[in-house]
Amino acid sequence: MKRLFAITLGILTAIGGFVDIGDLVANSEAGARFGLRLAWVVVVGVVGICVYAEMASRVAAVSRRPVFDLIRERLGARIALANLVGSYLITLLTLGAEIGGVALALHLASSVHYLLWVPLAAAAVWVVLWRVKFENLERFFGLLGLTLVVFVVALFTLNTDWARLGSELTSGPPDTENWATYGYFAIALFAAAMTPYEVFFLSSGGVEENWTRKDLVTARVNVFVGFPLGGLLSLGVMACAAVVFEPLSVSVDSIGQTTLPVAMALGKVGLAIVIIGVFAATFGAALETGLSNGYTIAQYFGWEWGKRVAPRQAARFHTVVLTSVVLGAALLLTTVDPVELTEYSLVFSAVVLPLTYLPILIVANDRDYLGDQVNGPIRNLLGVTYLVVILIVAIAAIPLMIITGAGQ
Amino acid sequence: MIGRPGWIALSGAVVAFAAFVAPVVIPTSFDDYRKTAVQAAQDALGQVRTVALVVEAARDGRTLKPYVSQVFWQSREALGTAQKEMAAEEVPDARAKSVEAQIVPLLAASIRQVNAAEITLDDDVTAAGTAVRELTDLGDQLAVFVGRYR
Q1: What CATH number does residue B138 fall under?
Q2: Among A15, A157, B26, B55, which is most exposed with the fewest C-beta within 10 angstroms?
Q3: Burial of residue B8, with CB atoms counted within 10 A of its CB: 0-12 exposed, 13-18 middle, 19 or more buried
Q4: What is the mean pLDDT of chain A?
Q5: ipTM of the complex
């Protein structure tokens, strides 16, 4: 019974924790401009993150060491440094975007300008990271993020033209768009689903929670059930934007617009719930990205890390976390638009994806670390296939950003 | 012979020229002007129609006051940016002048009507229907502009 409860809780947390500012922005923008024509990318991205998240969690559960730690040991300091620099910078950009998302949710709820909320949101993120236990922060915000299910409820309440949505699933770009913008948004959606911090957080979190081989089943169920259901929330966001904005030729460029379909469908209560959902999703992701920044640097340099040890014992880890939160907030205080910051973080994230996922594939094939739990042929086939996709995405991201003027 | 540092410096200079100097030195063509105008019109179209949806939802009691105020703030910001970008663009020829004569009043009307809609919502929610109709008409005009010059 206790095990069933743990599995259910893990799944719910994974669903609620799947969506972050990148998913909210990319899915609503894509839905407004392309309807459901890019829904297949979300499916491809979710399968990809499942493949690699399972590998990362297996590495953590069997070796009882996080992926980044092993990357340096297995691939050497130089390659690990390239991985570290790319991953840290992207995760820092993402952290800034998530803090911006928290501030925007508070702006929606209070009408106080989001820039005034940025320092408070950053301070709150740091206090929670400092004071709250790992399991509690992960579960609380993951479960609260489940309120984003209102997008799915709204979809069934809105006057949805299901036939039109269905026909879009297999169509190319609409007349108003071209293949370049279609490709650009496909890359953004793929990167939103496969954000690098997710695997760092998952594998380090596994070590924080003392996963062993016994926890492999729980970890797999969380990944293979929780993430796809989280992907459904992303598709709900996309479909709501497709129903409300696409017929009006309105492109979405703010969180206010993203949440509007819920208000139209479910009124004040729905609007309040979706604002709470956006707050929880972005706050939870800010915690995960903040911790991931600390994890990657501390693990590379071999410092004591994590929330399982007292802050005094992991002072350098906590300093990195604090510095990252401050840098993320400072980035926003330059008045860069959080939604634009999110868009750029997704594109640059796409560029560094191979740096994150190739080492995981290598480590997951190493018998010294995984023994009988190394990748089998099917996992390797999937891993290599996705690596090819990731490489194509990484190569195409910047040229498409330039050609389309960042999706204009 | 240019050595490796020379090639790096040359590449840097070419990139810097392409990124910073070329856009200033090379004169704006009609096509550039048209693209900027279409982008501004599309942005305005998005804001005007979003505000119309929000006003309608507010009239039906489906929104929260801080939310509505945030949407209006966002719209004003976006419309202000579109107007500034349009004003900063050099008008290269007579054809562009004709485009300018259409887009500038549309952008001004967008700002005016978004402000008017906010005042209407504050003063008299029952009069919001008129604001929605006006915003819808303006949205249609912007859509025609986008369709003509895309």
Answers
A1: 1.20.120
A2: B26
A3: exposed
A4: 90
A5: 0.86
